[in-house]
Amino acid sequence: MIFNELRKHRKLASKRNPMYEKNKFGKFWVYIGAAFWAAYLIFFGIIFPSLFEETSPNMEPYYIMNGSILIFILIADFLFRFAFQQTPTQEVKPYLLLPIKKKRLIDFLLIRSGLSSYNYIWLFLFIPFSFLTITKYFGFWGVFTYCLGIWLLMIINNYWYLFCKTLIDEHICWIILPIVIYGAVISSLFIPKESLLFYILLDIGNGYIEGNLLYFIGTIIIIAFFWLANRQLMNKLIYAELSKTKDNKVKHISEFHFFEIYGEIGEFMRLEIKMLLRNKRPKTSFNMILVAVVIFSAALSFTDVYDSSGNMKLFIIVYAFIVFAMTTLLTIMGYEGNYLDGLMSCKETIRSLLQAKYYMYSLFELLPLILMLPAIITGKITFLSVISIMFFTVGFMYFLFFQLAVYNNNTEPLNEKLTGRQSGGKSRRLIVSFAAFIIPMVLYNLFIALMGEVMGEIILLFIGLGFMLTSRLWINNIYQRVMKNRYKNMEGFRDSRV
């Protein structure tokens, strides 16, 4: 009964969220994207059997899938979850006044995460694949048990991701854990000639197809292990968040006095840096983005992984510059929603805040530029292509991101990761995130196709410079629209505070 009540409360909280009406439009496009991705997986599920038969005619296609491909699908699923799946949250404080055990709230979080629709998405690949390859030997029962086993593996992947993500949110050094484990797994597939892991995976897949209870019991035991590990970890972290046990010491106080020469804008630039250095949520997001950019830049500069793919090189350049803006600009004004009443009490303060954010995040774009220098020096990418993408991001893409300041009215918790309220606007942010990557890549390829490589990059560069040089004008326009909408937005910020 308690789980059913919590589910009802969750639905009511979602409907009462100030971003609920805006989410309806976003969800429509999210569903369109999910349908497209499902169709894409069905297509691969249909062509994989014939492809595997051509490459390995002496083996059944499901042998190749289980022994070689499945592990890479699980790794890809784990990585995709960082982009599309957030750590589940539950507003805990009101329930602590009731005779409800805290562990029941954690169990609800874990059940909701395990039953998430994301854990079913890969079945669009495996169902058509299994129908084409398994039915001739094991019938429809083999298809059912195989797909059931795949679903259980996705649940394991879900709780494994949740465990890693929770640890990484606590400290970025925990990112070493999945890197080491997946590095060891991939190495064990390729280094020995007769890989033991290949036969283990093959045996597990065949056990699912045959409906062997021992394999299903073993899988459920692993799910229970990760369930208990997440339960213990979340219980500890929820207690720390509620008791504020980690907020009582400041090891070092940096004043950043050099910002004082810029007046009020300098004060907000200093506030932005302190928020990224001290507050848990923005600090963790920024650190994870920095690590990701370093890894991709190093792979581009010092390996030949992307040498044969021009579009992948372009994607890495776009990712390196866009992702820094997405750290906080997707939720622009969200963190300030915690103390927006004080900001609104001073005339034109919001204008200075927006200008400070623009200058600060424009300076942050120098980090990926520096990280791209080895690739430029080695001739893998051109300096003009990097500069054109950088200025296009700082100019045109920042212009688009800052428009969200007019519409965002959901307060983002600065420190709470597990005990905060349900965050609103996720659907819209997902759409904006996709658009942020697609727009630069589409325009870049379009201009190059029409004008040639050099002229296309120059046009992209001048578009960015045009928006940069006129930044005061469009920031002032955004400020005026924010002030017209301020009462509605302030109501939303107040209603969504932790």
Largest sheet: none
Number of helical segments with 4 or more residues: 22
Taking the alpha carbons of the first and last residues, their distance comes to: 26 Å
Helical content band = over 70%
Q: What's the count of strands?
A: 0
What value does the average pLDDT take?
Answer: 81
Could you explain how this protein is built, in words?
It is globular, with a radius of gyration of 25 Å. Helix 12 packs antiparallel against helix 13 (310-326), helix 17 runs antiparallel to helix 19 and helix 17 packs parallel to helix 20. The chain has two domains: 18-243, no CATH class; 258-495, no CATH class. It is mainly α and 498 residues long. It has helices at residues 2-16, 20-55, 61-84, 93-96, 102-114, 123-133, 135-170, 176-190, 196-210, 213-243, 263-278, 280-302, 310-326, 340-344, 349-364, 366-377, 383-402, 404-407, 426-451, 453-469, 471-484, 486-495. 76% of the residues lie in helices and 0% in strands. The chain is built from 22 helices and no strands.
Summarize the structure.
With 498 residues, the protein is an all-alpha fold. Helix content is 76%, strand content 0%. The two termini are 26 Å apart.
